[in-house]
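fwd from M.: "can u put these together and see what the complex looks like"

so here's what she sent:
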Amino acid sequence: MADATTAVAEKPYYQVSTNKHSGILSWLLTTDHKRIGLMYFAAIITFFLVGVIIGVLMRLELIAPGRTIMGPQTYNELFTLHGVIMIFLFIIPGLPAIFGNFFLPIQIGARDVAFPRLNLLSYYIYVIGAIMALTSLFLPGGPIDTGWTFYIPYSIRSTTNVSMALLAAFVLGFSSILTGINFITTVHRMRAPGMGWFRMPLFVWATYATAWIQVIATPVIGITILLVVIERAFGVGIFDPALGGDPILFQHLFWIYSHPAVYIMILPAMGVVSEIIPTFSRRTIFGYKQIAYSSLAIAFIGYLVWGHHMFSSGMSDTDAMIFSLLTFLVALPSGVKIFNWVATMYKGSIDPQPPFLWVMAFIVLFSIGGLTGLVLGSLATDIHLTDTYFVVAHFHYVMFGGTGTIFFAALHYWFPKMFGKMYNIKFSKIAVVTYFIGFNMLYFPKFIMGYMGMPRRYYDYLPMFTPYQRISTIGSWILAGTIFFMVGYFIHALYKGKKATSNPWGGVTLEWHISSPPIMENFHEIPTITHEPYDFSQLKEMKNE
Amino acid sequence: MFPSPTTHAESVDFVMLYIVSISVVLLLGITATMIYFVFKYNRKKGHQPVDIHGNIWLEVVWILIPTLLVLSMFYFGYTSYREFRDRPDEAFVVKVTARMWHFSFTYDNGRKSDTLYVPINTPIDLEMRSMDVNHAFYIPAFRIKEDILFSQTNHLYFTPKEEGSYDVACAEYCGLNHSAMYTKVVVMPENKFTAWFGAPAKLQKAGVNN
């Protein structure tokens, strides 16, 4: 190898262009998986913060009964936007597109994903979808006000820009499908020599299971969305009951995608947990195969439970019974994961650094989310609680307390690797604590309000709910404050942070064998894998590397 | 836990209490174990970590016990649900019409009202239909709810056993004034109801009007 190339190879990935351009075009036209991961990161975090601000405004409106800062139409538009942004622009792409893109190839010892240009295309499809969603806010007609579930007939009758927002979700779906295809192929074809299926890190397993759901389930929502758009434009009578259509058919089709979609959201997060716990316990994972297979089990059973969103829709008792039973069964693999994670701490050597503390917060919040899911899987209680704040609390504990918390855990875990800088450890420990307090203040009162009969998507409420609503709103300030505090110390770390070593936590998966930040194409030479993924006896050898 | 104006509400509260009790035990167990491990096996104490790859008996235990637990939860939830879904042999039928953002009630003698009046200790059968988008009829105090659709008639059954006036909320998002779509169900003693209605409530077998 010529000397010039060797010199280039030592530079971090963000200083080396993969194309003939330099400056901004070297980013916009890059095919490097790490740079694409970072571009997703910039876009996704922006939408997340917008979603947070919308959430805070909604909570502010609800601090007292009656009108506080906005009218009902604005409120209805805001809760729809909050849902659409958080689900389609943040939580579905979040972990796979950022951390999957960045670390999946590295963890299996590859130089890039299988289809780098397709990867860039996925990114631009995501951007186009996001721009379409934003455009729908400003076109005549106004922001969509149907809720993120787009239930018919309301979404047919609404005069807001429903079609534009739906087409945005349609386009975003393609981004998700293409990323899924890319990851599946990468895992099958690009593993380093010696990396058998059961030597793959569990984050790879989880992302792989997720990729299959993305590829198989997303087309269903694509077809459904097209049918709604056709219905709105031409009134053909597929769903619209006034034309002889069936609005319940829409609900089935919607949830056939959107229930598996919640596993798209949570599975990669579970993968991250399985990375962080061994690293900070410095011992191998307990029940590797059980954790890997439970991801597949969740992905599979997750397809068969969509009807539990519709128990009160006039569904037959037999259907309700079957969906309820299957829903209880899908809880089991999640339980298996939690038990194995806690068992991984047994006889470890635990160093509770920030990423580990985030995982501890996750285990509590996600357990609350999962266990309250049992209340909703049970028919008698679901009939009372469906479409109330109880459901709102449940899915925020699962999606935000689960995936959101792990998004932050992953960021704290991999930030030094991605950017080569270390953040302020003391600040991040404070952030975990205030996050946990704010989170529970914000969402726990909603369980109580739900059982008292507070329906969801309500602009106004009965006076009896006021104290609970008030605690919830105060919690939203603590939670949002923590999030902006994190943004602050991460930005500070980018510019002023201490240089991170190549292995600040003592991890042993492949990303910790390479420099921080990684070089372009990750490895000087492709490694040959001779260890299990969480074999910490490697640590001694690694120090000599 | 809460006042129960119907037998079904008591049964739902029981299912809730059953699931929540088990959940609290599991949650506290998991959290306490985790925190205990973090202190006991803290790196500062300088233990050598032990690589334990798994234990097949533990895996069996923590699949089997949760399976039994969730099956029992399923069973209680399902049986309680069935008793609310089965139409009583004879019931007093009231037609419910929902439109954006209002409920109205039509009784078998043609009488109409905006508040639902029903006699105590009488099985009620609500025949519900929407004139526009999806709504839902939700009586939190009775722990029951059912969607109201344009395309099909859905039913809701209950037998009130306490006099009083209970909130009814629309629980399926229906647009601008969704949160104002409230009414009440007023449970009256039989003589008062007869005075209001003009006659005693007449019970009907299922399907007479359909």
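replying to her w this: The domain at 7-85 of chain B is CATH 1.10.287.90 (Helix Hairpins).
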